């Protein structure tokens, strides 16, 4: 009779743990957006950012340094007209922005980047923005194209283009430690149960 009672307790404990773990990890998926920009003078940029596709709002809006609301990573590489790398790095790593000027607005339904003020974070020279005209005047998003600047000469854009291409990669499941926890819990329960009946 003790054996049957222990099996019942083990089954209930395992079911409760499995339900709790499943509820915390259901639906998590990393979505990656690949960005590309080409200016009329031959400068270019490629980059990407990631977010949890299961919990993201329709419009992702990030601004400034510190913990982000949705974006988990943002990286960008700038090239000169000869396709030589000018600068490369990440302004957002593990949900934390190192760039006080960072701004990104992205519509997850239309895959349109409507606002971007992006650089490599920390100490940077180059940045891409649609918040400054080619002459360096600060404007509202949508008032100008996406302009590429050397911050040492921020009153004249090196290059300009009207838009940024954003391509959604297939969402990938986020590796969750929950399954490992569940297996460990089941194994520990089995050992404890075995010790009581043996």
Describe the structure.
The structure is a single chain. The radius of gyration is 24 Å and the shape is globular. It is built from two helices and 14 strands; from the N terminus they run αββββββββββββββα. The strands form two sheets. Strands 1, 2, 4, 5, 6, 7, 13 and 14 form an eight-stranded antiparallel sheet that branches. It has a six-stranded antiparallel sheet with strand order 3-8-9-10-11-12, with no helix packed on it. A hairpin with a 2-residue loop joins strand 6 and strand 7. It is an alpha+beta fold. The chain has two domains: 45 residues; 145 residues, no CATH class. The N terminus is likely disordered. The protein starts with a helix and ends with a helix.
Could you list the spans in which at least 5 consecutive residues all have pLDDT below 50?
1-27
Question: What share of residues are in beta strands?
Answer: 35-45%
Estimate the mean pLDDT confidence. 81
Number of discrete helical segments: 2
**Backbone CA Rg:** 24 Å
**Helix coverage percent of residues?**
10-25%
- The chain-level structural class is alpha+beta
Summed up, the domain count is: 2
Order of helices and strands: HEEEEEEEEEEEEEEH
């Amino acid at each position: 009779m003790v054996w049957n009672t222990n099996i019942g307790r083990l089954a209930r404990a395992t079911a409760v743990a499995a339900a709790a773990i499943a509820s915390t990890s259901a639906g998590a998926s990393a979505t990656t957006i690949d960005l590309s920009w080409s200016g009329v003078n031959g400068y270019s940029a490629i980059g990407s950012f990631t977010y949890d596709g299961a919990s993201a709002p329709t419009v992702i809006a990030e601004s400034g340094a510190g913990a982000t609301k949705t974006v988990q990573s943002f990286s960008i590489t700038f090239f000169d007209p000869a396709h030589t790398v000018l600068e490369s790095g990440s302004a957002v790593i593990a949900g934390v922005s190192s760039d006080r000027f960072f701004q990104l607005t992205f519509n997850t339904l239309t895959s349109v980047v409507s606002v971007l003020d992006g650089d490599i974070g920390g100490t940077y020279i180059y940045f891409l923005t649609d918040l400054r005209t080619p002459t360096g005047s600060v404007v509202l998003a949508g008032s100008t194209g996406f302009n590429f600047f050397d911050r040492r000469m921020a009153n004249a854009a090196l290059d300009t283009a009207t838009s940024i291409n954003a391509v959604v990669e297939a969402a990938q499941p986020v590796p969750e430690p929950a399954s490992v926890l569940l297996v460990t819990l089941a194994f520990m329960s089995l050992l404890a149960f075995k010790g009581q009946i043996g």
